[in-house]
Write a structure and sequence with these properties.
With 700 residues, the protein is of the alpha+beta class. The chain is built from 22 helices and 18 strands. It is globular.
Length: 700
């Protein structure tokens, strides 16, 4: 054979002269590629709409992979397609991302954002965002658009030997530029500026959870407004939520901090009630205020009657469980199942359990079943899964029907709603939903609400439903909290011993010049509501403790914040003289009203606050009093109260340690750690006048 025949064919091809390029074939290949790309892109827009920029990028890449119409017989045509598509794909990729040297603009002001929030640069939920002086401006739109459009110009195309872009190509390039501008204009999360390892100032991260907005209780003068009236609050949801936020390294929104719920989370050793007919009796004390040596604290506490151990009151419970898609997270439905399993283990053959699940539609998961059939109940719980939208009101209606079907006389008939607070289908009018709950309450079926998870927790709705349902609201942040609420405090959660409990305190102007109720902002009542049995109020469960604190200023001390009235003594007999004549030496007078669970007429408890209840030094008070004061200071400081600027975190921690006591369950030790965490996330400001010690010395 000749050398030519033995030569490698591939080597021979390298010496072959390629045919001249065909302009017609090249143009056909370009137009076919563009047409296919445009068709694929249009088809993908439906699925890509509303997705993030990363998802859109994946859609574009998928479209590029789908381009297969090209003349493979012409190598030069293939090269033309590659030269065209690669720059375009690279440009479209860049148009959906920010380069390292670009920065995001500050959070835009929402159209319905209150003026006060705009001034403070806060989000509508009260969460603090980046301050204006730290925000950086976004690139000018003209510059961003020019960058995007400059990639595929006529000069660039000519330099590569390609034809000038068609109208459709120019449109795609302009679209890429527009996408780039939109990406730059998107609002960004507030940067977390840190100082010394802690988030600077009082910065918080928006959580998506919603809370009832309220203003802090203000100082009142006894001469003008001597009577304070409010409904008790036995809920503990605020403390559990605040604890979770702090443990996650985040500061809660101020409206999430309800000081009375922080205090009432902890049990206190108040005087026990002697009978179910009088289910509690008040305990009172007056002692120096840890954060203000110029004032004193009036502490009022009650402890609900505890039935004898052998008494087994029947219960008819309906678990109303949210199984919507938002409940899929580990701290929601999976935790909920384990929590309810704990409760089932506490029930007896005198109790029944039903289960209703709601998502896209409501359904009965378990008909009324004797609680001793634990395997059947737990199996029904275990089979629940999350998915679908939320139809909370529809589920509530079905749950009440089951509760009425299995109603027990003389026992507990209660619906226990477990949800992340997402109500968006069904009775969507909050007032109609509350009216429905209230009507069912009057028929003898009550409602408690357990909140789970974070991100879309509707605390405001949960609180409203629980209050109107004569039940309580709790937040289950972890398995230990489930054990506390559903095992240790099961009597307080399920067994109501008194309803519509109201407190009214009248201060003696001869002894007290000013006062301020700490917390209970969302439970305030009008003075005339106290004697009106038609006005709803809080309910007390078996063994539940409730605490209320007033900060009071002694009359004649010269330490009042409000100046006396110029003409106050010219309107006849002075109020102080009347008070001294009627009750000499009394500091205040306490009245409490309550109804027994099966009664509609209230009963009255009265007790004077006398000098015999006054302690001169906080070191002489009980551990419970010191600890209650520490929690009150903690809650107010966390909210940013104007009344607790005179105490630092270290003093609060010291006070809590002094009041720790036996701490059987470790809740107080946990609180002390929480104070330490809060001090890192929200350090004491340099403007605080002093870090008050427990004795409050040196801060006059």
């Amino acid at each position: 054979m000749s050398d030519d025949m033995n030569e490698d064919p591939l080597a021979a091809l390298t010496r072959t002269t390629l045919p001249p390029p065909s302009a017609q074939a090249r143009q056909r290949a370009i137009e076919a590629g563009l047409a296919t790309f445009a068709a694929q892109q249009q088809k993908a827009e439906t699925t890509a709409k509303g997705l993030g920029w990363g998802a859109r990028l994946r859609t574009i890449i998928t479209s590029l992979k789908g381009i297969s119409i090209m003349d493979l017989r012409l190598p030069i045509g293939t090269a033309a397609i590659v030269l065209l598509v690669l720059p375009l794909g690279y440009q479209l990729y860049n148009s959906t991302m920010l380069t390292p040297d670009e920065t995001l603009p500050p959070r835009p002001v929402m159209a319905n954002q209150p003026a006060a929030e705009i001034a403070n640069n806060t989000a509508p939920s009260g969460q603090v965002v980046a301050s204006p002086d730290k925000a950086v401006a976004a690139p000018e739109p003209e510059t961003a658009g020019a960058d995007a459009a400059s990639v595929m110009t006529e000069d660039t195309m000519a330099a590569t030997g390609l034809a000038a872009p068609s109208t459709s190509m120019q449109s795609m390039v302009q679209t890429g530029a527009q996408m780039r501008q939109e990406a730059v204009a998107m609002p960004a999360p507030a940067p977390l500026a840190k100082t010394g390892g802690a988030i600077a100032g009082s910065m918080t991260v928006p959580s998506g959870d919603t809370f009832t907005r309220f203003d802090e209780q203000r100082l009142k003068t006894v001469a003008e407004d001597p009577v304070s009236t409010f409904s008790i609050d036995v809920d503990s949801a605020s403390y559990a939520y605040v604890r979770r936020m702090l443990e996650d390294g985040l500061l809660p929104a101020p409206d999430a901090v309800r000081v009375e719920e922080m205090i009432n989370y902890f049990p206190f050793d108040y005087a026990p009630a002697h009978s179910a007919a009088t289910p509690f009796e008040p305990s009172m004390a007056v002692y120096p205020t840890p954060w203000n040596p110029r004032t004193q604290l009036l502490q009022i506490g009650i402890k609900g009657y505890v039935p004898p151990a052998g008494e087994d009151k029947p219960s008819n419970l309906v678990f109303l469980i949210d199984t919507s898609g938002s409940m899929e997270a580990d701290d929601k439905l999976p935790l909920l199942k384990r929590a309810f399993a704990l409760l089932v283990d506490q029930l007896s053959d005198n109790d029944t359990v039903s289960i209703v699940a709601y998502a896209g539609s409501a359904g009965v998961v378990l008909e009324p079943t004797v609680a001793t059939q634990r395997a059947r109940i737990l199996s029904a719980l275990d089979n629940l899964s999350a998915g679908g939208s939320t139809a909370g009101a529809e589920g509530i209606e079905l749950a009440y029907r089951l509760a009425e079907q299995a109603k027990v006389a003389g026992g507990t008939n209660r619906v226990i709603l477990a949800t992340d607070g997402d109500f968006n289908v069904g009775i969507d009018d909050p007032e109609d939903l509350e009216a429905y709950i209230k009507a069912k309450r009057d028929s003898g079926v009550t409602l408690s609400v357990l909140g789970f998870g974070r991100g879309n927790l509707d605390d405001a709705t949960m609180q409203a439903l629980a209050q109107n349902g004569n039940g309580n609201a709790a937040y289950i942040s972890n398995f230990r909290e489930a054990q506390k609420v559903l095992v240790e405090e099961m009597g307080g959660t399920l067994d109501m011993i008194a309803k519509d409990v109201k407190i009214q305190v009248e201060f003696n102007p001869a002894i007290v010049s000013e006062y301020r109720l700490i917390g209970y902002e969302t439970r305030a009542l009008n003075r005339e509501d106290f004697n009106n049995d038609a006005v709803d109020a809080g309910d007390v469960g078996a063994g539940t403790t409730v605490t209320a604190l007033y900060e009071i200023t002694p009359a004649g001390s010269g330490r009042e914040l409000v100046d006396p009235l110029r003409y106050g003594a010219q309107a006849g007999t002075e109020p102080a003289a009347v008070a001294t004549m009627n009750a000499p030496g009394e500091i205040a007078f306490l009245k409490m009203r309550y109804k027994l669970p099966d009664r509609d007429v209230s009963q009255l408890i009265e007790a004077p606050v006398t000098p015999a209840l006054v302690y001169g030094d906080i070191a002489d008070v009980s551990d419970d009093m010191r600890f209650a004061a520490a929690v009150a200071a903690f809650g107010q400081k966390l909210r940013g109260s104007v009344y607790t600027t005179g105490i630092g975190w270290s003093a609060i921690e010291e006070l809590a340690r002094a009041g720790k006591g036996s701490d059987k369950n470790g809740y107080r030790a946990e609180f002390i750690n929480l104070v330490r965490t809060a001090s890192l996330l929200k350090p004491d400001s340099d403007s605080d006048p002093c870090d008050v010690a427990v004795s409050a010395e040196g801060c006059d």
